[in-house]
Amino acid sequence: MYKLNNIKAIGLLAFIIVALAACKPDEADFKSPSFSNNPDVFMDDFSSGLQYAVFQGASFSAFDVTSEVTYGGSASAMRFAVPDVNSSDGSYAGGTFFVGDGRDLSEYNTLSFYAKATKSATIDVIGFGISFGEDLYEVSTSIDVNTNWKKYYIPIPDASKLSSEKGLLHFAEGPENGQGYTFWLDEIKFEKTGLLAHPKSTIMGGDNIVKLAYQGIAVNIENVSYSINQPDGVFKDYNIQPGYFSLTSGNESVVQIDADNKIKIVGEGLALIRGYIDGVEADGSLTLNVQGSFSSAPTPTYDQANVVSLYSDHYNNVPVDFFNGYWEPFQTTRSEDFSINGDNILNYVEFNFVGNQFSNPTVDASAMTHLHLDLFIPVAVQSSTSLNITIRDFGPDGTDGGGDDADIIESFTDLDLTSGIWNSLDIPLNGLSSKNALGLLIYEGNELPNFFLDNVFFYN
Amino acid sequence: MKYLILTKLNKQIFATSIAFMFAVCFTSCDKDGSSDFLDREYNLIWSDEFVGQYGDLPDSSKWTYDLGTGNDGWGNSELQTYRDLPDNVSLDGLGNLVITAMDEAFGGSPFTSGRVKTQGLFTAKYGRVEANIKIPFGPGIWPAFWMLGSNIDEVSWPQCGEIDILEARGQAPSIMYGSLHGPGYSAGTAVTEAYNLGNDRFDSDFHIYAIEWGEDYIDFFVDDILYNQVTAEDVAGEWVYNNSFFMVLNVAVGGGFAGFPTTGTPFPQRMLVDYVRVYKEI
């Protein structure tokens, strides 16, 4: 089953609006001076102003409104038909219900709804906070559903942030073991419940992370989590955006938190950054060790004629499909690339693995002897830190897979990697059985949550 | 064993107590322990406010311990070993007694916890008995504030009588129970009443759990709500509560009332007791 762990990756800006007859603008709410606090998303019908957009690649016909199966005898419910695998209509059911004029949800603390399904299944993604904007306050989770109606909660970690929220409900679910099925949602509304308790959260994976930082290079908190105790006494985890965390700086002469809750580096030294949600401190912290000026990677000395470059400000670069494929479902790596003093640098955060693909066209490196990379690690190198780099030749078919690919894998350990300096890595290509159709570099790390990358090129 | 079974008798009481609930909903128990609606006046005769240093054991002149596993997990197939260590029973330095259930194998049990009692140190007969408690939570967690007849060693249970001022099941933290167990109406046939907090949970904050107790009657309160009244005529056996009782505070893990903990039960779990106070009616 094709699981989704990052809805944005499937094309947030590529929504296709599906006009539904049920989308009824409410004259009373139209152009009201303040945002509506209407808590209803779908009770017996679309609530005021609610619209529906299908996620890219999802089934167009997955959603409709039914009066046949409803919760507690209500007039109607939402029905979602998850397609079978390889369905011509789309590989999954997914979309968002949103309003054009944001809702003021600040007096509520959860989205709630009832759900049931034709069989026991796990709805991969369900939550709120996806519309057409920055979506700073998305919350989502997966839920186990079965053939009985059950009430579910999507908590609002800090409702004061939601004074104008447009994304009221979104979902994404693929076939279960290749088979489609149907689930229903009803009585979908925001409410203030006392039945969720003991919220807890983490930043930086719950660890106390120390990171080198420089003026001009943005730093954000990452690896956040949120959990809240359910009415049955068991905690449930939710994916939330870092935007819910209010940050504090322990050293205002080094780091300040600006009005947009962003980390602003103002001086050199150490600053401890903590996160809070609705006044409750998160586990984990980020200590920035702000250095003086940032040194770019060493300038490469090879002639352009002897180089095929993928990423460097010093060479002409060949076309690259992507420097981060956001491979689902297990990749956590995000890109926070930056430019400093005119030097463009790749920055992988929450790194576990990532790929650089260059298949249009593939690279003929038959005249090349090595791959070169410059790697800067702004966090501590642990004894268990390692990095494997795979160089893949796509073979005669020119595409990834197909049984004709050739790989070499070079491993680097803590002995090869040093924090706080540029590590120049050179990998010989002579172990590669074929190198005239190179198409992919894969980086896989352990205890290496963040690194900068520059000057990625083949040379002889 | 204290199963919840709503008998016909209890349902009648429930109907009655609903009427009382509306009546007393906003009548508070004053600081001197009086209940306006019931027009009773009380004087404080015993209390522990749990003032002390962080990590201290509670006042040994007021509290003693049940230790170990008892017989068959204290008669309830409970899964914990009780200890008198600060890990399980101690003051938090902020004015609370903390009883902590831990997911920690000890003495052949998979969990440890604490159970303190006033047996041999203090007993009450009649009056108002109350505690301000923040209960723990999670499936299989069974916190309780209760009393046992001080003649238990002579007549044994249930002849001695048991007054449960607070019991809860961590998998249903919005509901608390008050019960009487006596001869002919114990365990599954105990006189029990549940009170549901509705859109809130008892583990989210402190609540005052109390009884007001006199000859041939016991009234059960949570905060200012009188949610059950039981008289000698209401029990299906001998009324054994015109006697002195000692108090018990504990957090059990597992057992017949709360069922097994699950992999989702969060540990450690802490019951915070702000105070225990006993009043005598004037």
Explain this structure to me?
- The complex is a heterodimer of chains A (460) and B (282).
- With 460 residues, chain A is mostly beta strands.
- Helices cover 0% and strands 44% of the residues of chain A.
- Chain A has strands at residues 16-18, 40-42, 50-54, 63-66, 77-82, 93-103, 110-117, 121-128, 139-145, 150-155, 165-173, 181-191, 197-202, 208-213, 225-229, 235-240, 246-249, 255-257, 263-265, 269-277, 280-281, 285-290, 307-311, 334-335, 338-340, 343-349, 353-357, 370-376, 386-393, 406-413, 422-428, 438-446, 450-459.
- Chain B is 9% helix and 38% strand.
- Chain B has three helices and 17 strands.
- Chain B has helices at 8-24, 73-77, 152-155, and strands at residues 42-48, 64-65, 80-82, 89-91, 97-101, 111-113, 115-117, 127-134, 141-149, 162-168, 175-181, 191-196, 207-214, 217-222, 225-231, 245-253, 269-281.
- The radius of gyration of chain B is 17 Å and the shape is globular.
- Mean pLDDT of chain B is 89; it is low at 1-34.
- The chains are: A mainly beta (460), B mainly beta (282).
- The interface between A and B is medium-sized, with 11 and 20 residues.
Helices, strands, pairings?
The complex is a heterodimer of chains A (460) and B (282).
Chain A: E1 16-18, E2 40-42, E3 50-54, E4 63-66, E5 77-82, E6 93-103, E7 110-117, E8 121-128, E9 139-145, E10 150-155, E11 165-173, E12 181-191, E13 197-202, E14 208-213, E15 225-229, E16 235-240, E17 246-249, E18 255-257, E19 263-265, E20 269-277, E21 280-281, E22 285-290, E23 307-311, E24 334-335, E25 338-340, E26 343-349, E27 353-357, E28 370-376, E29 386-393, E30 406-413, E31 422-428, E32 438-446, E33 450-459
Chain B: H1 8-24, E1 42-48, E2 64-65, H2 73-77, E3 80-82, E4 89-91, E5 97-101, E6 111-113, E7 115-117, E8 127-134, E9 141-149, H3 152-155, E10 162-168, E11 175-181, E12 191-196, E13 207-214, E14 217-222, E15 225-231, E16 245-253, E17 269-281
Parallel strand pairs in B: 3-6
Antiparallel strand pairs in B: 1-17, 2-7, 4-5, 5-17, 7-16, 8-13, 8-17, 9-10, 9-16, 10-11, 11-12, 13-14, 14-15
